[in-house]
DNA sequence: TACAATCCTGACCAACCGGTCAACTTGCAT
DNA sequence: ATGCAAGTTGACCGGTTGGTCAGGATTGTA
């Protein structure tokens, strides 16, 4: 996500656009470290706060406190609240594209799709806040990442859909609309992160145990595979 | 939802708690009409705005403009922004419980579940904003409707789960966890309302056509029925 | 040590927002 | 017509929030 840095960074005087002597590289490396470490701390705190309160509900003061920094320091690294939000989103999106590698023409459909679902479910469990930030952005019309959806994500889904169509033509599974299949998989997995209060309430628990998630995962895998006519 | 009125209404002086003569009923009816008409207008505008911007992102001024009323008038009918939000949520929740009537022991599983999915999908299409308001509330931890989830919704799902367990024991379908089945159905249907930007972007369209939704619905029905071992 | 670049921060401000209120109009029974 | 309750509204207010800025502290080099 090359846009991240240019978006996230504040305009420190002449930083990055001034030619530097070769021997000054070490300096910049150390400065870079301070920078990236601070940015990482801020991003982590921001992700938590944005996930809980959304963009409008989150306050820079709250994020600053969560990061253990004075508020003005946030504005040193991220010019505006919107820029910080974009940076959090960029980090989230980088998680999103992953895990589809196994969906290839020469792969076994049951294994490939099953492992994809398992990976997605694991992702929503380990990166709950990222999932919520993403969901929030969707809910509000995806004003910041619309272009990403129409280009990168669409291209990826188009490619993987061709794989599934190929599987269907080879008789390995039913001829189904791969795109809607992805929508269902995404929705069914993300719901355990985004709608956790509902899930917990209906199950009569206060939190989602690993075992419960495991059960949900395997049932979903079974349902998708059988529902797609994949012999398991 | 009896709590709605007491929550939503402003404390007009002595309204509702003063004994009235029987012949004054017509008066109150007309006053009630003004009241309910105004409340309905405000609620409709609020649902749209809350759906787009969330609770924190929405402003009373914006809602007022959408309703074509001065801001102070909103506060006449709904004391606070939170009370207005609660009223919108209550309206949303009343939609939520419906449509499960068909899931009965003596029903045919394929028909009952299939029609339930179709009804849910229709609901997300016709009440997109309501779905988004609900999703937003979930995302932020369901602070306002936690009790509803743990009581009414849980009771309903418990009851319907027993029906599905019964179907499984009679050999009409596989023995699956009914609760997770509901989570999957809810997620897969709501995603077409809540994540519409993603769906449209991946499909390469600007809006979801009725035909596209129809296709998604039938594929989901087929997947759920076959995935649950229900003979179709 | 001297310097420059980067990093850090307390104090401050303008804009916005939810909510109030006093004054006004409308509707309706007598 | 009269009077009162209900409905309506412009103007206003205090608190919050994103963002700024001047100046000090740190870091690393020459």
Task: Describe the 3D structure.
The structure is a homodimer. Chain A is mostly helical. In chain A, about 70% of the residues lie in helices and about 0% in strands. Chain A is built from eleven helices and no strands. Chain A has helices at about 5-10, 25-55, 60-65, 70-75, 80-95, 110-125, 130-140, 145-170, 180-195, 195-205, 210-225. In chain A, helix 2 crosses helix 7. The first copy, chain A, is globular. Chains A and B meet through helix 2, helix 7, helix 8, helix 9 and helix 10 of A and helix 2, helix 7, helix 8, helix 9 and helix 10 of B. The structure holds a DNA duplex (30 and 30 nucleotides).
Task: From the structure above, extract its key features.
DNA-binding; globular; disordered N terminus; homodimer; 232 residues; 0% strand; mainly alpha
Q: Rough shape of chain A?
A: globular
In terms of DSSP E residues, the strand content of chain A is under 5%
Straight-line distance between termini of chain A: 37 Å
Q: Would you tell me the structural class of the helices and strands of chain A? A: mainly alpha
Strand count of chain A: 0
Largest sheet of chain A: none
The biggest chain-chain interface is: A-B, 56 and 56 residues
Write the layout of secondary structure elements.
2 copies of one chain form a homodimer.
Chain A: H1 3-8, H2 25-57, H3 60-67, H4 71-77, H5 81-96, H6 109-126, H7 128-139, H8 146-169, H9 178-194, H10 196-203, H11 210-227
Helix pairs in contact in A: 2-3, 2-5, 2-7, 5-7, 6-7, 6-9, 6-11, 9-11
Chain B binds a DNA duplex (30 and 30 nucleotides) through residues 12-15, 23-24, 26-27, 30-31, 34-35, 38, 59-61, 69-73, 75-77, 79-81.
């Amino acid at each position: 996500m090359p846009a991240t840095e240019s978006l996230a960074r504040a305009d420190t005087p002449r930083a990055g656009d001034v030619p530097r002597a070769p021997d000054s590289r070490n300096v910049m490396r150390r400065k870079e470290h301070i920078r990236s470490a601070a940015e990482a701390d801020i991003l982590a705190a921001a992700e938590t706060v944005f996930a809980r309160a959304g963009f409008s509900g989150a306050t820079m003061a709250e994020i600053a406190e969560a990061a253990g920094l004075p508020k003005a320091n946030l504005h040193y690294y991220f010019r505006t609240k919107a820029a910080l939000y974009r940076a959090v989103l960029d980090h989230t999106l980088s998680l999103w594209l992953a895990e589809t590698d196994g969906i290839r023409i020469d792969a076994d459909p049951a294994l490939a799709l099953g492992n994809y679902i398992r990976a997605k479910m694991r992702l929503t469990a380990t990166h709950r806040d990222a999932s919520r930030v993403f969901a929030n952005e969707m809910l509000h019309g995806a004003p910041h990442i619309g272009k990403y959806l129409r280009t990168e994500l669409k291209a990826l889904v188009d490619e993987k859909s061709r794989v599934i169509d190929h599987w269907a033509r080879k008789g390995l599974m039913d001829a189904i609309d791969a795109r809607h299949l992805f929508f269902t998989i995404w929705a069914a997995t993300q719901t355990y992160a985004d709608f956790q209060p509902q899930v917990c309430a209906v199950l009569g628990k206060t939190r989602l145990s690993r075992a419960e998630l495991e059960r949900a995962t395997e049932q979903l895998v079974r349902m998708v595979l059988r529902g797609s006519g994949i012999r398991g």
